[in-house]
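S1.2 Input.
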Amino acid sequence: MNFNPMNFITNLSYMLKGMIGIFVVIGVIILITVLLNKFTGGKK
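S1.3 Output.
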């Protein structure tokens, strides 16, 4: 096993893309939920 600290720096771009993807998916889920509640929510 070889420890190379520079690999961490090169992998930061992949981690950033993954985090952005997670936040986009969460945002889409929240948006769909809000829209469904707006259109299907009955008057009380």
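S1.4 Remarks. The radius of gyration is 19 Å.
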